[in-house]
Amino acid sequence: MAKLVTLIISSESETKYFKDILEMHGFRVSAHSGIISQSKISSDEHPDLIVVDLQRDLEAGLQLPAAIAGQPGLKGVPMLGLVPSREVLRQAVANGYTSCLLMPTGIPDLCAAFQPFIGKGKLVGAKAGGSSYQGISVPS
User: Fold this and answer.
1) How many Å apart are CA 29 and CA 35, to the nearest integer?
2) Fewer C-beta neighbours within 10 Å, C or N terminus of the chain?
């Protein structure tokens, strides 16, 4: 079964951008507009990766990892934060995001950021080595 990526993104155009790229590469995508309750994700989905846009609703987005970590069905699901600056990146990592990606970004950087979570060799356009994207990963 194809892996599921849950998108929590406020902008309709950005949601479409991410969804199109992921679906083009064979992934199932569940898209939500804005920050949603962690219980909705838990009861409706069992994602392999949760991608959260921290550019529009920073406070709610920073609280999401702690809330999701408390859900039995979601414990251990990696979270990728889409951040507008290095300062927000530091805050997101400190609040429990597995990895962050500075926005805006191009398709190769986006693919490279997703690779550790959704499998190697599946995303066309990812940069070799997987570490050349503008983000930071936190070792588990």
Assistant:
1) 16
2) N
Token pair, residue 120, equals 């190697």
Break the chain into its structural domains and give their ranges: 4-137
Cis upstream peptide for 139 (omega within 30°): no
Class of domain 4-137 (CATH, top level): alpha beta
From first to last of its 140 residues, what are the pLDDT tens digits of the chain? 788 898 988 888 888 988 998 888 788 898 887 666 555 665 567 888 999 999 878 888 898 898 888 787 788 889 999 999 999 999 999 999 999 999 888 878 877 887 787 764 444 444 433 333 344 333 33
Between helices 107-118 and 12-24, what is the axis angle to 10°? Answer: 60
**For residue 44, what are its two tokens?**
């409706």
Strand partners, 112: none
Query: 36-41: which pairs have CB atoms within 8 A and are 24 or more residues apart?
Result: 36/8, 37/67, 38/64, 38/67, 38/68, 38/70, 38/71, 38/74, 39/71, 41/6, 41/68, 41/71, 41/74
